[in-house]
Amino acid sequence: MESTIVIKARNISKTFHISEDSHNTVKHRLFNLFNPPRNKNLEAIKMMNFEINKGECVGLIGRNGCGKSTLIRLLAGVYPTDTGFVDINGTTLLMNLGVGMSHELTARENIYVSSSVLGMKIKDIDAIFDKIVSFAELEGFIDTKIKYFSSGMVARLGFSIAVNAGASIMFLDEIFAVGDMKFQEKAIKVFESSWIEGKTVVLVSHSMEVIKKYCGRTAYMKHGALAYFGETNKAVEMYLADNQ
Amino acid sequence: MIGNILKDWKSRSNKYERLWLLAKIEFKLRYYENKLGLFWALLKPLMDIAIYYVAFKVILKTDVPAFASYLFIGLVFWIFFVESTTGTIQILNTKKYLYEYSNMNKLEIYISTLFSNSIGFLFNLSMFFLFYHFFESQSNPISYNNLWVIVLFINLFILSLGCSLMLSNLYIIAKDINQIWMVFISFLFFLSPIFYKLSSFKESLPALEYGNPMAGIIINSRRVMMDGVAPDFELLAFDFGYAIFFLLVGIILLNKLGAKAAEKL
């Protein structure tokens, strides 16, 4: 079967302009007309090209600050690119310790809103609602605002929504750190049974075991550049060599 | 081909559902959270009417006929505009959780919030209708021209959406836009014929009804809802022109500045 491309990145790059002064009000701008803010440019992502196919599980590794998180934000369409373009074919979900939820809403409302943002219809959400609640182990707290939840409860709810609703393209940033050991086991089980099959996954992790176990291809990043993209074992070797 | 069309229709129907879901939740958050509930939505215009009625009818002895209704309809339109602009300046900040983790279209966030305000508007407009026809002694009979209010509301909705887009995206680069807008909107309030007699407004500030889109909408709202006549079409055309212009500028700003909201806010 011919594989279809779900993410196509062409000549993408991203530079952050970090300003030393806070020129973010009209007053500041007026008073400092002839004193422009001193900007420091940080090249977070250097020019790169690649494609990700449907159903693939791609690893993304590299040392802290090498641009992994920025890259997945560009790919998920959360940040705009400075140059080039990212073609995304499907809904995306970026997940690091939970998904976007409003603390002013109840667990029930958050489940409906987040699942709907991920592209689900209300009657489909109705069908999986109980599953989401029981997976998150939050029965009895459905109509409580999540601002009264503990951080573990919020994380479990976010994880449960992502697991059960899920977008067609998932960006998972160190997700196996959620909840206690029992929850983690459950998370890994569901990850293996439902995400690896059918969904496109980009997995960011510092655990080489996880990367080796799940990823067919892996990208290794160094100082904002894509140093290698291909066979997982080779990427892991390069990463380990860099850590020496 | 047909599959694609069906798929597109299906995905779009999720979009409508989502807009409605977000609007409902927003509405509930705003009104049901407090004990007075939906009554708050009505209380605001009622309090304003009481204040202006005392000031202009009792003290200044204005001779506008059916003055309470005159104020009521003007304020119903004005309050929607204020809530949809002042109330949404920080929307990209407060609703960050919706776009921070996915590629959701930000325009949906605005439309759902304005839908939520529309529920309040509809409620207030119905209250006005009941008040005018059952309690106002100097009222005109119900006319099919009343239906023009739908067109006026669409005009108001586009205008508010455009202003909301402009303000909230400027907020990303200028955090004090909030204070500037507060000053501007109170200026605009006094330059709109909300409690002035229309003839003295036109005489003192000639052509301002064309310069201030809210003035035009309020003037037309009284024509269709109180006088039972068709709106002033020239004014209506001007106001639609303003609304579409602001919406275009707002969308350009959303694409230029709003795209960077996730990293700047």
Briefly, what is this?
The complex is a heterodimer of chains A (244) and B (265). Chain A has 244 residues and is of the alpha/beta class.
Please provide a written account of the structure:
The complex is a heterodimer of chains A (244) and B (265). Chain A has a single domain, classed as P-loop containing nucleotide triphosphate hydrolases (Rossmann fold, 3-Layer(aba) Sandwich). Helix content of chain A is 35%, strand content 28%. Chain A contains 8 helices and 9 strands. Chain A has a 6-stranded mixed β-sheet with strand order 5-6-7-3-8-9, with helices on both faces. In chain A, strands 2-1-4 form a 3-stranded antiparallel β-sheet. The radius of gyration of chain A is 20 Å and the shape is globular. With 265 residues, chain B is mainly α. Helix content of chain B is 76%, strand content 0%. The chains are: A alpha/beta (244), B mainly alpha (265). Chain A binds chain B through residues 16, 24-27, 29, 73, 76-80, 88, 91-95, 99-102, 104-105, 109, 112-113, 116-122, 167, and chain B through 10-11, 13-14, 17-18, 21-22, 25, 29, 95-104, 173-177, 180, 259-260, 262-263.
Tags for this entry?
heterodimer, A: 244 residues, alpha/beta, Rossmann fold, 6-stranded mixed β-sheet, 3-stranded antiparallel β-sheet, 8 helices, B: 265 residues, mainly alpha, 13 helices, 76% helix, 0% strand, globular
For the largest beta-sheet of chain A, the strand count, sense and barrel status come to:
6 strands, mixed
Number of helices of chain A: 8
The tally of strands of chain A reads 9
Terminal CA distance of chain A: 41 Å
